[in-house]
Amino acid sequence: MTQASPIPAPSFPREEGYLAHLRLEKRLSPETVSAYLSDLRLFFRQAAGTPDAPAGLEAMTLPKLRAFIRGLVELGFAPSSISRYLSTLKSYSAYLADEGVLDKDPIQGLQGPRQQRYKPQSLSRHDIDALYDSLEAAVLREDTGARRNLCLVELLYGLGLRISEATGLKLDQVNLPEEVVLVQGKGNKQRLVPLGRKVAYSIRQYLEKDWEAKGRTDTLLLNRFGRPLSRMGAWKIVQRICAAADIRIAASPHTFRHSFATHLIEAGADLRSVQEMLGHADISTTQIYTHLDQEYLKEVHSSFHPRNKG
User: Fold this and answer.
1) DSSP secondary structure string for all residues of 138-180
2) pLDDT in tens, 156-212
3) What amino acid positions are annotated as catalytic residues?
């Protein structure tokens, strides 16, 4: 007669009840539940000092919890990872307190390391001037793809478009007489972005001298085979043109978008107008942002963007 396999001992106190709590009450995904359980198993092993016999509820004290978090810091865990462990411990501690297993929640006084907010790089005004000088020199030399490359930068820096918005832009979205572009942003939200005189000129030159010779698609930016430029293709172009202009920072297409916003704000443009042009909210959405007239957006863009001066 085959003997039944022994049931493994719980890795931490009230494991089965907490597992049911996560699955049935919190309705967390299997991946999240697995991560929570893994975090708690590590904590109770560390609290006991041995992987063979995990600690019990006596580990759920503020000094031991602080020692665990401090140990993660000393081991070089990223602040985001430590915050995840802290979130797991808070969830588990609150569960034990709600169940009456603990008299009070010991983790309320525990704080993790402060996470630094991600701040994307932006190009300096000097870098931008050097880049445009290099691009315009390439156009004068009639270098292959030079007008297209200049047009790409105008969309990324001159208009602040996302790379997906720039590479997906169709001809019928570009209104040169009105000097606006209808952009299809995230979540299929649309916004109108002012073109500006110099940006409109660069797009017009590209369309008149290069694009019509290809003409097999309605997408604005094309590769050398006359097909829509891919995001990877645009990324490689950005690397090449920055190297040609001797720009030393590791620029990406998003670097130009961030530079667009940074330079407008530094010059005095108000945040709400910049948010509209970046597409952080649909331009017709008045519930969140105050509606801004298109003529006013054109005026802000014309007054403050460096490509509209001189």
Assistant:
1) HHHTT-TTHHHHHHHHIIIIIS---HHHHHT-BGGGEETTTTE
2) 999 989 888 999 999 999 999 888 888 887 767 788 888 888 899 999 999 988 886
3) 162, 186, 254, 257, 280, 289
Q: Give the pLDDT mean for 298-310.
A: 67
Angle (CA) 92-99-43 rounded to 5° is 25
Residue spans of the domains in the chain: they are 15-109, 125-308
Q: How many residues does the chain have?
A: 310
Can you give the pLDDT at residue 32?
Answer: 86
For the chain, percent helix, then strand, then coil, each to nearest 5? 55, 5, 35
CATH class assigned to 15-109: mainly alpha
Contact 308, 269 (CB under 8 A): no
pLDDT band with cut points at 50, 70 and 90 for residue 289:
very low
Which residue in this structure is represented by tokens 């996302």? 162
Q: Which residue has the tokens 């801004």?
A: 292
CATH of range 125-308; options 1.10.260.40, 1.20.1560.10, 1.10.443.10, 1.20.58.100 = 1.10.443.10
Sort 215 into a burial class: Cβ within 10 Å, 0-12 / 13-18 / 19+: exposed
> Other C-beta atoms within 10 Å of 243: how many?
12
Nearest to 230 by CA among 242, 217, 244, 243: 217
Q: Using the 8-state DSSP alphabet, how is residue 183 labeled?
A: E
> DSSP character for 219?
B
